[in-house]
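ugh finaly. both done.
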Amino acid sequence: MHIRPAAVALALSGALTASLVACSSDDVVSKFAAAVSERDATGAGALTSDPEGASEALQANFDGMGDATPKVTAGKDGEEQTLTWSWNLPRHSKPISYTAPVVAGGGKLTWKPTVVHPDATPGSRLLYSDEKAYDTPVVDRKNAPLMTWQTVTVVSLDPARADSADALAAKLAVADRSVTAASLRAAVKDKPAPTAVISLRAADAKKVGPLAGIAGVSTREEGRLLTASPALRSPVDGALDERWRSDVDAAAGANITIVDAANKPVRLVDTIGGERPQPVRTTLDAGLQRAANAAVAGEKRPTMLVAIRPSTGGLLAVAQNKAADGQGPVALTGLYAPGSTFKTITTAAALQAGVTTPDAELPCPGKATFGDRSIPNENEFALGTVPLHTAFAKSCNTTMAGLGTKLGDTAFTDTARAFGLGVDFEIPGVTTVTGNVPAARTPAERVEESIGQGRVTASPFGLAVVEASLAAGRTAQPSLFDGERAKADAPALPIDPGVADALRSAMRETVTSGTATALQDIDGLGGKTGTAEFGNNEHAHGWFAGIVGDLAFATFVESGDSSGPAVTVSGAFLRGAGGDLP
């Protein structure tokens, strides 16, 4: 059979054209897959027969999948071209994968919703959602709930209807008296849209009642992790929330669903099973936290209280009142001169160095001069010559300053670190600062440090650690979560049992016949009062730190002017704790 050259040329041309079209078809599918893998909705859409519609649909799917990342590959199922989608989900090692058929020709991929998933329909999209055990509680050392997942009502006010602030404030007053019409107007001032002004717990929302009748006011309900009751608020709540989220996220399952334009489920694509997380177990004590909160709330001045269980190092309660909240978590990080509470360290250093004994008779004049430093007692009271334990119980500055002159420049620094003061603890979930006890540079500084002044500082947390260390007989290792003790920049050191016994006895005397007799009804309590001058010495902070049973604590009242307010707050805490004392 004779074939003309022209026919041969035509046949070859047709074959070549078919080959080029096939290559072009494969190429556009691969390019589309690469663009989608980069979440480039615009770039991928431009490769389709409907650039605008495809781009919008792809972006809707990307948005619905949140942080999930796609890896898409081009392939074939026989003669049919396909895209294999593999979605890598946050916190899950197993991807969710499926294959969708595609059609391409003329250098374009034919756009259909089924390109994204074979069961997709016009207007639908993929939606990723975590399946989390939100009802997982945060519990205290006795398994009582501290924080739980609750429904709150979020109230918003439209700035254009700020004139409704008076009516709204009147309704909200039953739940929060601090909300005023002025504060509501300030909250929405210069805002472009309705703004959330308050969130109400379920009980408060019920008290407030419906708000739909107030112009410009809208409400919505949402879930939040909250303290089991307002009485359990604490500066460590943020740490508890963070740990809860971490645990719940790690145990979460996941779903990918096809939803329609109204976000109603159309089809479950796939699911990854989650686990049931254990409750977040803390060292806190709900009863003690309530008692601590009630005690500090009785003071108008910034007031803080930290309690630790010496036998475990676990934080039992961390409280500060609203006057202190504006300064941050100062119960854990605020640094102040410790005043006479530091005499615990001074006495321990002197006993350990052998320069005195618990029963040594020492002078306690109303005022004494050491080098160029004149040290008075409060109101210049004088005791004459008394045993060391009595000078401690009565808080005699002149006796302690005299002991300070007999010690080395690093004696207070070294002793304080054995008690945990000046140690940097890394406590999982929470930031803390104990304080600073620098080595004395001059004899005058050593005298000032002996009575907790000069460059010595401590936080309420730091002094609670001191008391816990004394009670435990070695440097405390504080913690917030059960079984997770702190890492420290110094090794835990033992405290000489003889020194510890002498201090505990002197602290008991402080309560029975010393400067804290207002607390003598509390059986077994020992403690130390403290007044620390600051500024131009016109004002003073007040302290009380103590031990009773398996409880060590420190109370601080800013600008208390004496230890009296701190003693009062401590008494309210201990009496309010009642049977919750460990």
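ok and the 2nd:
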Amino acid sequence: MKPFNYLSNAVRAPEIVAILVRWGFEDLLLQLDTPQFLLRNLVRKKVTHLTAYERVRNACEELGPIFVKFGQILSTRPDKLPEPLVMELKKLRSQVKTQPFEVIKPQLVRELECEIEDVFAEFDTEPVAAGSLGQVYKAKLIATGEWVSVKVQRADIHKTISADLEIIGWFAKQLHSRIEDLRPYNLPTLLREAEKRLHEELNYKNEADNAEIFRALNDKPKVFAPRVNRALTTPRLLVTEWVDGCSPDKITVNSEEAAELARMGGDSVFHQIVGTGFFHSDPHSGNMLVTPDQRICFIDWGQAGQITLEMRHHLADLFAAITARDASKVIRVADRMSMNNRRFDRRPIEKEVTLLLNKYREFGPSGTKIGTVGLEMLYIFGSNGVELPPDYALLSKSILCVEETARTMDPEFDIQAVARPYLEQLNKERWSMTSIAQHTFYPMLSMLRRMQQIPENLQRILQRIEEEDLQINFHHTGTENLEETFNASMNRLTVGIIIGSLLIGSSLIITTGVKPLLWGYPAIGILGFLVSGILGMYIVISTLRKHR
């Protein structure tokens, strides 16, 4: 992220500070190195009826679409953030003001590389949907007469993102360095990962790829994704087939049909996760359409997860351990799932997991959503040093979203009943004789190959030692801010030397009586004293503010 510059953010920075103060975060801002001029003349509003996490969500929604999108991306990291905060961030929806078509049109023409009338026989200039990154229009192709969905990125979105990223990065860095309670969350690293995800979503070709991968892997006739028009799709323009339908929470069908739709949605998500390993990571009601012929269409494939076969085996073990309330098995599975392969103290984790399983005694329609338990479980792992692949976090969010969406159609929806056949089939394939033979024979063969390479590798190391060509590289952690601190110190030292030089030079000039004179003294000498005094006051004030 770029270093923060007050001059280039002279308009946006005061606006953000004002919103944060309005939602009751003034005390937090006072702990940061926030310039005092940004905190003057602001309306103080004490929000007492909302929790801190609810105020974070409301502030994000008022701060604008980029903050909303960042919050949505951070909601996929339950291994790093507390479950109540994740649940609030998950509620974020982009309530963005639509841009006029006159503003969007130049972008559309630029991506089409021709006039709109050359491609579309009809084009409805009123957007059917508006998100934080783009707007969706309905149009009809000249070539085929097919109705299509045209998703165009908002005008100047990259410029807006660049400005807001600079401010978000500054706040994250200040929070991490100055507030000890927030340091375990490592906000700068989280935001760097979120920034990477955001840039991936800005490339609509990634969304097109995800939709096409799902269509290739899907074997459910009543579940589908819109067909992509590759000829017209660019990084900033996505054209797909038009799908008529409504969101699951607005359907008007009888209870039996609603229950069947809920089962179909859950069945599809578990087929994606367990069957293929490629899944929609955010299947909430806004990203699903129920067609008039009662099919389910998954839209908005900007976020998708991918898990390997081994990760699916771990998922089956973890699911079984949670439903059996076996905390010890949960810890053993977490150890196998971990990316860092480091030893960790099992006792505090097992204590927290046991407490969690005891707190949620019942799953299913009358009890807790199993996705909620998964989110809290991931946070326990992450806060105790067990680093899991990020796709597990996407997976937990996907399960929770489909649970919530399915229950809007069928309050008696039980995700365990939907998941059980897939997990049982996965275990059968995992422990079949063919699978055991493959997982035994190939590792042994690989081990023999590596053993054959040991003499050759040893000889190469000894030869490099003999030729004095062996180097050992060390990386010292915890020195990320050293360069910035060193530069700031050198700048102050340089200004100090200049001040000293001005004082000495001005003193010598004062004694000479060189004209022109001011109040009987040489004007150049007085000017030198004045400049050195101003610079000295600047260093004193900035030092006191920095270390107050």
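summary for the 2nd one i guess: The longest helix spans residues 433-466.
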